Request: fold
Amino acid sequence: MKGRKARGQILYPRHIAVIMDGNGRWAKKRLLPRGAGHRAGLKRMLELTEHAFLSGARYLTLYALSAENLQRPKEELDGLYALFRDYFSGNVSTLIKKGIRLKVIGDMSLLPPDIVELIANGERETAAGKGGLLILAIAYGARQEIVAAVNRAVSAGRAVDEAQFSSLLKTDGVPDPDLLIRTGKEQRLSNFLLWQSAYTELYFSDKMFPDFTSADFDRAVSDFLERDRRYGKLTPESEVII
Ligand code: IPE
Ligand code: IPE
Ligand code: MG
Reply:
């Protein structure tokens, strides 16, 4: 599905966000350790990243690890950290080749220092990319992000309007998500982009993330394209009826 224009309207969501949930249940169903689910999830994440940008997305935000996930058992976290190390060591060159810029949002002080360094290198090395922005949310929590922004405004001693407040968030300069997909059957936001998703269209899939294919991604986008985004106003159709 290519991004295209009709009557001046962009017919592809510019910014898509994904809560990649269900790796553990995917593994459990196959009598595998949870780490095998995370590995399968990472493979899927690579496929969907390529697919999303080729299809016309300009921004893709992937929820990889919440701040709350850091309370999981050490064994699971160590497995996840190993996957992050693999990802940042092995995939930055692919992102550079494809012209995709990388940005990581989250509380870096909660992560092992070597991963923070890999992230900083990845962001620096991809900084010139013009083909799209890949945002990975790692050790991310929306409430924490909002509280940090409030505190920045307070220490600057000034009142802020909505646009100024947005610019104090880690997503400064990034348009709000048009479409937010959550895999893994749960229908909640789990502390993801709470401010930014005020008018985002939500799409929930029962599929566990490792099973969520590019075709499923296209179905979510097609569903989005059928939606009527009113932003609290009246649609042109209903204005005609009235
Ligand atoms: C999402 O999968 C990935 C992370 C939170 C790191 P889960 O690990 O939450 O998988 P389920 O929800 O237990 O199936
Ligand atoms: C949300 O999934 C976080 C990620 C997918 C990274 P969780 O599995 O942590 O969410 P809850 O605990 O079911 O709300
Ligand atoms: Mg989960």
